[in-house]
Amino acid sequence: MGAAGVVGADADASAVCVVDARNKLGEVPVWDVREQALYWVDIEGRLLLRFTPATGEVRRWTMPERIACFALREKGGLIVAFASGLALYDLDRATIDWIARPEAHIPTNRFNEGKCDRKGRFWAGTMDDRLREHTGALYRVDLDLTVHKVLDGIGISNSTVWSLADDAFYFADTLDGAIFRFDYDHETGTISNRRQIVDLKGTGIGPDGSTIDTEGYLWNAQWDGWRLARYAPDGRLDRTVDLPVQKPTSCMFGGPSLRTLYVTSAIWDHTPDELTRQPHAGGLFALDVGVGGVPEPRFAG
């Protein structure tokens, strides 16, 4: 089932810019339940950022290269997919312990989206940095730091999400305008039986990063769509939520009760005139969509 169908926009959910970050490519928000803070990255700005809502403090760490995605680690620090490879990163000492550079032989590729599953394994996908070819792949980092290729033939990896029952895996290829659902074996960390459930090809809208809510629905940030979309597990479009920015990039539930939906965004290639019409492009937004989320797992390796 695709996403075709007439569904009205949600006029009740109003997005507030909580950090006017002006990120060129803000991405992958991660809510830390322990710190009650939201981490995210500016890929092109080579930044890791942290927002603490209780105080309004925003902290920034400059990275040695583009940082594509990350997960908080049970042992402290982060597991990171830098543009060039996978590594453990110590925030206090600013040190890198490289795990692997699985695509060093493809200089036109870089890492993009990634998250942890509920076994504490880290999944990260790559993309063609020229936005043209299907040279990317999806990798899984196990707890012993071994790296396994799970999927290949990808244009732009996005939307790494697991169902609440851990029996399905959702993944988007933004280059194809598609969101796929796979059967998922939680014990082995394997995926099978791919089927396309959302088709946005030809609409000018790209499915970007996603999260899941407590009802098992997928929230997807839609690049060039000025909106979030909520999809049922079968891909049926449940509703859309308008945003004040053209290029939302990802979303994550946070806050004390996990009922605030945070959304990252990008300035990317906007002209000065376009930025006049969306002055908070590249900002971090927060909104109440009437449902909550689930805690984000930490990397257990």
What does this structure look like?
- By secondary structure, the chain is mostly beta strands.
- It has a single domain (9-287), classed as TolB, C-terminal domain (Neuraminidase), CATH 2.120.10.
- It is built from one helix and 25 strands.
- The protein has one helix at residues 272-277, and strands spanning 9-10, 16-19, 26-32, 37-42, 47-52, 57-62, 67-72, 78-82, 85-90, 95-100, 109-116, 122-128, 136-141, 147-154, 157-162, 168-173, 178-185, 190-199, 206-212, 218-223, 227-231, 237-242, 248-254, 260-265, 284-287.
- The protein has a five-stranded mixed β-sheet, with no helix packed on it. A four-stranded antiparallel β-sheet has the order 2-25-24-23, with no helix packed on it.
- β5 and β6 form a beta hairpin.
- The longest helix is centred in the last third of the chain and has 6 residues, at 272-277.
- The protein is globular and about 45 Å long.
- The N and C termini lie far apart (37 Å).
- Mean pLDDT is 95; it is low at 1-9.
